[in-house]
Specification:
Order of helices and strands: HEHEEEEEEE
Strand content: 25-35%
Strand order of the largest sheet: 2-1-6-7-8
Number of helices: 2
Structural class: alpha+beta
Oligomer: single chain
Shape: globular
Length: 157
């Protein structure tokens, strides 16, 4: 049977809207609320992603960022978010379309969403999600072989 309404696309947009609205809540608050913190994984070469070339070289497939204590200039639009984070002590501006996000986790409330390819593909709503193993995230390797970045030691200014 043909789906002329496009329910899969509508579902994708709605679930990505959860990420957008969660980020808007911290943007409006001027920082994180309570113990909430976000692990956001995105496809670094997805259409519309803008970040320093050296970061794309270091993370050619995916990168996970942590929004918790230190981040600057968080701006949310309907289609993307922008944030400044420090990498090796150097501030870097990231422009990330919501369509590039492949995973969103807020371990403080055991909530997560994952998208098959980070660019509008099939998605699954995760069941209970535990704290990601971030003991030494600088040495972690994702399923695609990219190192995962742990930025949760920074503080919001």
């Amino acid at each position: 049977m043909t789906d002329f309404i496009g329910y899969e696309g509508l579902t994708q947009a709605a679930l990505r809207g959860v990420i957008r609205e969660a980020l808007r809540k911290i943007e409006g608050n001027g920082g994180m609320l309570g113990d909430h913190h976000f692990y956001i994984t995105f496809v670094t070469k997805a259409p519309g992603v803008k970040m320093a070339d050296h970061l794309v070289e270091r993370f050619p497939h995916e990168m996970t960022i942590v929004i918790q204590h230190q981040f600057w200039d968080l701006e949310i639009s309907d289609s993307h978010f922008e944030v400044v984070l420090k990498f090796a002590g150097v501030p870097q501006h990231l422009y990330i379309p919501f369509s590039a996000v492949s995973r969103f986790v807020d371990p403080s409330v055991n909530f997560g969403l994952t998208f098959e390819n980070g660019s509008g593909g099939d998605n699954d709503v995760l069941g209970p999600v535990g704290e990601p193993d971030m003991v030494d995230a600088s040495n972690m390797v994702s399923e695609t072989g990219d190192t995962v970045v742990n930025l949760d030691a920074f503080r919001k200014r």
